[in-house]
């Protein structure tokens, strides 16, 4: 077991001790202090996890889309990297430029406009002016990968 696993066990024990002290018979000011301390710890943990999660997202993005597993000595991390999504904000402004037939051939109409599966092929068949109008509005959304951690060797 490495020193980080030992720190983790100690921190978990301290948190449990604090939480256990907030029994129904504990004086209310003590329960408030315990709650305040635990809340502060949770905020610090969230702040500390942010750069760790970003590192894990970066590592996973380098491996491509899908689910990536990373293993430590006492735990594992799973990162789900979704596929980037193409969208065209304000696609409705293209309707007068493209005309209804061309517009409907390129886009499915939903709450937002989603390019059809054969969008790229159809786009190439359009006049340059129409292609440029579309490309100026095209936006690629890259969803944030989801990161989760799980202890594998440590049972609290």
Query: Whole-number radius of gyration?
Result: 25 Å
Percent strand: 15-25%
Largest sheet: 3 strands, antiparallel
Beginning-to-end CA distance, first to last residue: 15 Å
Uncertain parts: none
Class derived from helix and strand content:
alpha+beta
Number of E strands: 7
Short description:
The protein is of the alpha+beta class and 156 residues long. It contains 6 helices and 7 strands.
Write structural notes for this entry:
The chain is an alpha+beta fold and 156 residues long. It has 2 domains: 3-82 and 143-151, no CATH class; 89-137, no CATH class. 52% of the residues lie in helices and 20% in strands. The protein is built from 6 helices and 7 strands. The protein has a 3-stranded antiparallel β-sheet, with helices on one face. Strands 3-6 form a two-stranded antiparallel sheet. Strands 4-5 form a two-stranded antiparallel ribbon. Helix 1 runs antiparallel to helix 2. It is elongated and about 75 Å long. The model has no long low-confidence stretch (mean pLDDT 87).
Features:
three-stranded antiparallel sheet, 7 strands, single chain, two-stranded antiparallel sheet, 2 domains, elongated, 156 residues, alpha+beta
Write the layout of secondary structure elements.
Elements: H1 3-21, H2 28-63, E1 66-71, E2 75-81, E3 85-87, H3 95-98, H4 100-106, E4 107-109, E5 113-115, H5 119-123, H6 128-137, E6 139-141, E7 146-151
Antiparallel strand pairs: 1-2, 2-7, 3-6, 4-5
């Amino acid at each position: 077991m490495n020193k980080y696993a030992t720190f983790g066990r100690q921190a978990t024990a301290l948190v449990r001790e604090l939480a256990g002290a907030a029994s129904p018979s504990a004086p209310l000011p003590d329960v408030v202090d315990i709650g305040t301390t635990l809340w502060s710890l949770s905020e610090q943990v969230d702040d500390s996890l942010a750069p760790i999660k970003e590192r894990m997202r970066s590592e996973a993005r380098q491996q491509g889309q899908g689910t990536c597993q990373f293993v430590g000595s006492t735990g594992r991390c799973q990162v789900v990297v979704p596929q980037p999504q193409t969208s065209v904000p304000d696609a409705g402004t293209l309707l007068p430029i493209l005309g209804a037939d061309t517009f409907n051939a390129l886009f499915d109409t939903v709450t937002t406009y989603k390019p059809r599966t054969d969008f790229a092929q159809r786009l190439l068949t359009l006049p340059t002016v129409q292609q440029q109008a579309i490309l100026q509005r095209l936006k690629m959304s890259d969803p944030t990968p989801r990161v989760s951690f799980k202890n594998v060797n440590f049972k609290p």
